[in-house]
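Usage

Read records sequentially. Each one opens with the input sequence:
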Amino acid sequence: PPRSTLFPYTTLFRSGRVEVALSLHGAHLDLVIGADQDRSASLMEQGREELQDQLLAAGLEPGSIVVKHGA
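and closes with the structure output:
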């Protein structure tokens, strides 16, 4: 499968349910990411800085990025 250029976590496809809520105001983007498995949530927590960098590179202004366990 093609990899996302914004959030390249292909291992998440086998890691349970992941839900994302986003709020976009102009270029400002806030995200709430929920994962029902600890493995998925841990991967997303570890990749938060990379995600922020990729959002900036895409011309967006990353705001809060919240990762919730137990979606």
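Summary fields computed downstream for this record:
- The first strand starts at residue 18 and ends at 25.
- The mean pLDDT is 82.
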